[in-house]
Structure formats: structure tokens, C-alpha cells
Amino acid sequence: MNLDSVMDHDLQESDQFLASMTANCANETPITEEDCCAQRGFSAIVGESRALSEVLDLVDLVASTDSTVLLRGETGTGKELIAHAIHDRSRRRSKPFVKVNCAAIPSGLLESELFGYERGAFTGAVTQKTGRLELADQGTLFLDEIGDIPLELQPKLLRLLQEREFERLGSTRTKQVNLRVIAATHRDLEDMIVHNQFRSDLYYRLNVVPISIPPLRERPEDIPLLVRHFVRQFALQMNKTVSAISPETMEALAHYSWPGNIRELQNIIERSVVVHGRGHLTVKKSWLCHEEFRRESAVLPSILESATGDRDMIGEALARARGRISGPSGAAAILGIPPSTLESRIRSMNINKYQFKMA
Prior knowledge:
CATH superfamily of the largest domain: P-loop containing nucleotide triphosphate hydrolases
Strand order of the largest sheet: 5-8-11-4-12
Shape: globular
Number of domains: 3
Number of helices: 15
Oligomer: single chain
Order of helices and strands: HEEEHEHEHEEHEHEEEHHEHEHHHHHH
Strand content: 5-15%
């Protein structure tokens, strides 16, 4: 099957789904307890799409191991929820789940937060401090926004991943820890390696089991489920009664591209419940019209429309990008399509993108 036929099939499926979504939106959407479908025992994860199911299949596979996991996805796609799901289904579930947001902690403090320090290690260190690594011993360490970790701190993190050992600041005593590491990022680590912003050896230690979290625009069938879930959640918190969602509102939400993903949807629903008085819940269209933040829809660009769209074209782009998908010099940019679209094409055509990294 060539690329043109694959894309035609995808477009047909998309058109059929949107048609059914519009038909369903013709009637008001009631808020009932049965509407929210948590997947296969994942109580905090809402959705029924194939894209989400593939992610949860990987979660089931990797949860029983101690392998390092790298979660990749856009901001707001729920990477922390997936990290919690892995921990909760692992043999470490009764042990600590310790989160470190590498972007939120100033670089000068991140090392002491991770590794801890001894009294007198630096000015102001008047007491001993236990770091997050020790707190996560026997449990799971979640390194969120790993792409923002300072370059000078990366060798120490590499040693932790390789040897499961470290020293507190100001100490010469080596400590051993038994923990599972899950990292997450929205950044293009491969492109950062090319620009000497991220160590390749650390990348390979983190990228043992990569899991890509799909953006909300690639799982539109989950939007009604998420809407009902958040409406019920915020109505309960605010002691309000919301009996149904207007068809116009559900149709608008289903067709919006959600550049902020699930986090944006959650915020929009919370705002709508805050201002809700009586009758059907509605969302103002002006809340969904931030054009400067909206991504281009995943339509076929001219480079694919005018070409044969076969394996050779994708292979040429991957070769030029040395196997990189995302980033300004990645294969997706060369072809002029979103990285998620290219990833889908690569999977459907069984192309081994890793062979181009060695070229």
C-alpha cells in the first residue's frame, strides 16, 4: 500500500468520525455517571481511542519491569498521569512516587534537590538535607521536563542511571539507591544532542522504553468523554447542577484543535462551569479562537500532494535528517508535515527510522 492510499484511508476514517460526531451532537449530551469510561482499570485516565489504547498497552507491558521509561509528548497531554499509571501497576506501587520538575527548580538548586547535601557543604547549609533520590529509594523517581536539566548536571544523572549510586553535595560517601526512573519531555532531545545541549549517552540511558503520548487533536473521539468527566468533576466541586451540554457546544469542542491539549480542555470546562447559571452548559466561542496559538490542522501539504508519496520520499527525508523526526532540521520539517503525521506514516509503512541514525 503506497502513501497516497494510506492517507486516503485516514482521511476517510476522519470524515466518517466527524460525520458521526456531528450527528451525535444534534441532541443534547446528558451528564451521567456512565458516560466517563476509565480504560481497563486506569482510573485517572479517560478515553477509548485507539491511540490511547496503544499507549496503555505499552504501560501494561513496561509496568512489571524496572526498565527506564521516556515519555514524550506535547505540553498538556498527560505525561504525569501515564507516569503514575506505570508506578501504580508496578511492584513498587506501595513505595514512594517522587516527582522532580527539572524546569521548575532553578538550575543552581536542582543538584541539591536531587542529591541532597551535608551540613557545611556550602554557605547556608546549616543542616543535612536528604535529596529526592533517597526519598525515592525502593520506589519511582519521575524526572519531568528532563530536557531542561542543566548540561553540567547530566553526567551525575548518567552515573545514577548506570550505577544507581551518587554522593550528597559535600560528601565523599557513596550511597546506593534502588529506584525506577521515568523521565518525560516535550522537547526534541535528538535535536538538542545535535546542538550540544543534551548528552547522547544520557539520552540512550533514558530512552530504553520510549512512549509517545498522542496530542488531543489525534484522539478526537475522546473529547466528549473528557468533557463529561471534567463537567461532572467541577460541578461537584462547585456544588452546581449541570444536566446536559448543548449540542452547539459539544460540536465546537469536538472540532477545536486544542493546542494546549487536555490541560486546555480542562481549563475551558472549569471556566464554563464557573460562569454556568442554569440550563445547558455552554462554552463561549471566543474562548476557542486564539488563532496565534492554534496549530495548523494535519492536512496534506503540497510536497505530499504533488509527489508519489512512497517510501523513497520518506526515506530520503529521514536520511537527510539522520533519522530525526522533529525539530527544525527533522524529517517532518523537510516534508512540511507535523511530526505526529510522519510517525503515523512510518508505522503504517513499517519503515525502520533507526537505520537512518547510523547512516
